[in-house]
Write a structure and sequence with these properties.
45% of the residues lie in helices and 13% in strands. The strands form 3 sheets. It has a 7-stranded parallel sheet, with helices on both faces. The two termini are 27 Å apart.
């Protein structure tokens, strides 16, 4: 069904969407953008999460209320202590040990009872019952909730279609791939069935198709729940990866809608700066500093919400940035988390040495806004999908420094398929194993950091081609979200799909 076929009568009978995100910053942020985008299309939106996560997005909640957007932010009690998790650990990045990720994911189904209890409360504002449930694909338990309400359940995929399709192939051919990487002298093998020559390692095979029985069981539960979904929303755009969208649609035999980049949702600067949580820096000071820099001269270095580098690696990274001679903004979350002894003292001293040319942000940075400033010309990134999309939309080239999970495949997409980035040259490892890692471990030496920054910001003719490609992708991303663009149509088709389902439901006189 195209966006022209069915016109949603949202002004007289607004559709009500129920959104259930995964409690992890990289998953929460685009879901919040989706909620506001749906509300801007005259839909009613209930966004359900836990108290800690709701408090983190308080600026967004307050802005939505001030602008009269029809969004409800609902608290669901998440009894983490009852399942052996520490009090307050309601998001992946708050877990004290990455060994707790699987218990955390298994505990997500505990949200079902408080959600159903909320849905049973008579609506004091006269909102209709939800017409559609959109949940993160990790929230597998929402299958039963949608069925009990007799409404469509759409799953939201945070990563790219490229990654989703690679995951599908790796899971399908796991045995052969395990044998191939074991036999290969360099530990890599080609992933067959793709239009681009993509190499994968044992790391990708184990991560996306784990041999650990508990992890494997959980992933199978996720995939099974996905089969019951009525459709799939992807935070990407058709022009970025057309082949992967088409093949994934054929594989699933169900609607797959591109609706991104969601980071392009139009909003006030102060609110955009608080995507995910409040900024750790005074934005006036930040932008005064950026305004003093030359166009395209600044390098942004940021590794997301859960990556934690060793003290030795922090030193090498800082000294490499200093030696590069380029102005930079470096987001150092390790100082705030207190997981790296000595980090605060070293960063404070380093900050004094580079105060005219470098800016240190301790904690959470308004990354999307920084990338959108004309002074920023390059981005050293951990290759989380949100970060990649934010850079792509702003036409900023990337130096890829993946750490975990899907980030290594995201690197291949940026460097080998999109050709808008340069690889730092990281070998797969488990950066999340904080308890057992060697604190003296260094993956990238200062000389390599300096070389990568120079290649990123200069790079001769090849560097100029990357920048040209990045600018083209940025134009395509923005066009996709504008009225009539591929992602604009994708969201319209989602709304029309739900509207048509509701119409048929009402005509059949099905009572709840």
């Amino acid at each position: 069904m195209s966006s022209e076929d069915v016109k949603c009568s949202s002004k007289t009978k607004p559709l009500h969407f129920l959104l259930i995100p995964l409690m992890q910053q990289g998953h929460m942020i685009p879901m919040i953008d989706l909620a506001r985008l749906l509300a801007a299309h005259d839909a009613l939106v209930t966004f359900a999460t836990t108290p800690v996560n709701l408090n983190r997005i308080r600026p967004i909640v307050d802005q939505a209320a001030a602008s009269s957007l029809p969004i409800r932010f609902v608290e669901l009690r998440f009894p983490v202590v009852d399942v052996g998790l520490p009090e307050g650990c309601e998001s992946v990045d708050l877990l004290p040990s990455m060994d707790l990720i699987l218990p955390f994911l298994n505990a997500l189904s505990l949200l079902r009872d408080p959600l159903e209890a909320y849905l049973c409360i008579p609506d004091k504002d006269g909102w209709p019952k939800p017409a559609c449930l959109i949940s993160d694909n990790f929230q597998h338990w929402t299958v039963d909730v949608a069925q009990s309400l007799n409404i469509p359940r759409l799953i939201f995929h945070g990563p790219s279609c490229f990654l989703i399709f690679c995951d599908l192939l790796i899971n399908r051919h796991r045995a052969e791939l395990e044998a191939a990487v074991a036999a290969a002298s360099d530990g890599f093998t080609m992933l067959q069935g793709l239009p681009h020559p993509i190499r994968i390692s044992k790391h990708e095979v184990i991560t996306l198709s784990p041999s650990d029985p508990d992890k494997s069981k959980y992933m199978e539960t996720i995939r099974s729940a996905e089969e019951f979904a009525d459709g799939v929303l992807v935070n990407s755009f058709m022009e970025l990866e057309p082949w992967y969208f088409e093949r994934y649609r054929k594989e699933k035999s169900k609607p797959v809608w591109p609706i991104g980049p969601l980071s392009l949702y139009k909003e006030e600067l102060d609110v955009k700066a608080a995507r995910g949580r409040a900024s750790s820096i005074d934005n006036n000071i930040l932008f005064q500093w950026l305004d003093r820099q030359e166009i395209g001269s600044v390098v942004l270095v940021s590794f997301g919400s859960i990556i934690c580098n060793t003290m030795a690696q922090l030193i090498e990274l800082g000294l490499g940035l200093e030696a590069s001679g380029r102005p930079f903004i470096w987001v150092v979350k390790e100082v705030v988390d207190k997981k790296v002894p000595g980090a605060e003292e070293w960063v404070t001293e380093f900050e004094k040495r580079v105060e005219r040319r470098g800016m240190i942000i301790r904690g959470w940075a308004p990354q999307a806004v920084i990338l959108g400033h004309v002074a920023v010309g390059g981005f050293v990134t951990h290759c989380g999908w949100n970060s990649i999309l934010e850079a792509l939309t702003m036409g900023v080239v990337m130096a890829t420094w993946p750490h975990i999970y899907d980030q290594f495949l995201n690197e291949r997409l940026v460097v080998e398929v999109l050709k808008s980035g340069v690889a730092v040259g990281i070998e797969p490892t488990d950066y999340l194993d904080v308890e057992n890692r060697n604190e003296a471990e260094v993956k990238v030496r200062r000389e390599e950091v300096e070389r990568v920054v120079e290649n990123l910001m200069g790079g001769g003719e090849a560097g100029e081609e990357r920048r040209k490609r990045a600018r083209e992708l940025g134009k395509q991303a923005r066009a996709a979200m504008e009225v009539g663009g591929s992602s604009w149509k994708g969201l319209q088709d989602v709304i029309n799909y739900v509207s048509e389902h509701q119409r048929k439901y009402q005509e059949a006189n099905i009572s709840c």
